[in-house]
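Format notes (please read before filing issues)

Several people have asked whether sequences and structure tokens are stored in separate files. They are not. Every record keeps both together, in the order shown below: the sequence lines, then the token lines. Line labels are part of the format and must not be stripped during preprocessing.
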Amino acid sequence: MTGLLKLSRVIDAGNTWIGKIAAWAILAAVLVSTVNAIIRKLFDVSSNSWLELQWYLFAVVFLLCASWTLIANEHIRIDIVNNMLPKRVRDSIDLFGHVFFLLPFAAVLVITGWPFFEASYKINEQSPNAGGLTVWPAKLLVPVCFTLLLVQCISEIIKRIAVMRGLIPDPHAEKPNAAEAEAQEVIKAIEEAESKHGAKS
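Then the structure lines:
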């Protein structure tokens, strides 16, 4: 298990680095959008390539930051229900979800995503819009994203098994995400309301 945990740390470090770099595309998208809007308003000039560049930058953030989001435990869950469950049950649900849902889903997208990109690359696919951009770089993001997500899923499985076996502390135990913090507040409010109701009756 020691070797697997070392592999997990390498995967986490790599995907965190990629996510932090890709996140700068948000600033780039804002700048492109701002410049595009100013030029359009001042000179009544627009270009499909500028618009498509904004979409590409959004795709970079959405796809290449997905694994980083998983590392940070910021992916979407029904946190209110999840936080009402015992920790052992939550760990088991996470492990089950990673093994039987995320892992095969990511594997399928990797297997189908590379031919999807290669077909576009071979014909040097261009945007159907006049003055648009080349399409295959955007399509490359799909298999790259799910390759990164696949290896990150493996890392999460390793860590969750290690946590359940008591080999490492839960990396998310002391730092709940924003949704979990909100869920805790809701649970606390419900419990307080129930205790007040019980006291009145």
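For reference, the curators noted about this record: The chain is about 80% helix and 0% strand. The CA atoms of residues 94 and 150 lie 15 Å apart.
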